[in-house]
Amino acid sequence: MTCGQWLRKYTSIFQQAGIREAAEEAGVLLGHALELSKAEIFSRPERIITAEEFALLKILARRRLKREPSAYIMRHKEFFGLDIFVDHRVLVPRPETEVLVEAAIEFARSYAADNKRAITIVDVGTGSGAIAIALAMNIPDLLIYAADISAAALEAAAINIERHGLKKRVIPTQSDLLQQINGMVDIITANLPYIPRSGMRLLQPEITDYEPEAALDGGVRGTEIIVRLLGQVPGKIKPGGAVFLEIGEGQEDDIMPVIARCLPGCAVTLIKDLAGIHRVIKIEAKPLLTTI
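RESULT FIELD:
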């Protein structure tokens, strides 16, 4: 069987199984099994698949047809141009989270230049460490605490930290949000669970059957963990610093009053993703912060 024949066959099989972007998914698995780039796969449709490769492809396709995400099958996912190790301990990084990373990098570079010193960041709910690693790779003079309540998730994050040579600058830290973080930091980033509990059952099987529920379920309204984090921010963020929160569609209406109560006088900016959805809330801290 040739690459072109395999792609056509499994694109059809994946489509019939209800797998989204079936052609892309088939191409990803074929490239992984044959150790070829996407361009090489599609430019060499006549390339013969060996018996050994075909046996591996059968195993990979069988797993995908059980709706296991390709990222878990291949044990990696590209995020912000970086290769991130992922497995069932952590959420698969999403493209929309890159909006948060871009906003945090822009602020951090300006903030560091203004303050003329190294800066400290906490990435809350770090999971695979994708956000922390993307920040560290793009901002040279900083220290990041990659915080997560899950010890298993931190094990996966540690793999990525070592893979990218960041052991001295990205520190895995087990913490319930900010509770175990000592002192104040310059920037807080957080991609916390924000799916309303009623919406969990509407998700694709790739998510509900494989990704960690604790990284997805945001409580009844979807904002409960974010609200709890905001209650911990006073006393943890330095004056002039900033908080970057990823949120779900329409959740800004619930969160904005909480920000006003926890961080009165702070400047708040809503940032849209490529779909035009308010995806990130940027909160620039003022000198005086109060607790709830």
